[in-house]
Request: fold
Amino acid sequence: EVQLLESGGGLVQAGGSLRLSCAVFGVSFDDYAIGWFRQAPGQEREGVSCITSDGTGDSTYYAESVQGRFTISSDNAKNTIYLQMNNLKPEDTGVYYCGGTGLWLYGSTWCWRPDGFIKRWGQGTLVTVSS
Reply:
């Protein structure tokens, strides 16, 4: 059974940085697809950044709004996915979730439309960026 647990959210001023962590249980880190998604009040959940691996290499994807500021990475030894968030903006505010599956997935569509692909989710961690 795949389980995920997010941590690292908090309150930060615009321009600051946070690193989110997603501890993953029940997934082999040579075959997975895991993403970070966020949801602001009154808004639909959106894909932020995703990573998938087939054991020979990783593929990463970023929403246009976070390119150049966020970096997704994995630590296989710790079964953890990180999201380093730099130069945070107020519009980055929201609840951040990690979700995943124990399969490599082709392309990036699943990151932007996770329904039907991502069935396991963490509890979320709140990120608030003040101006």
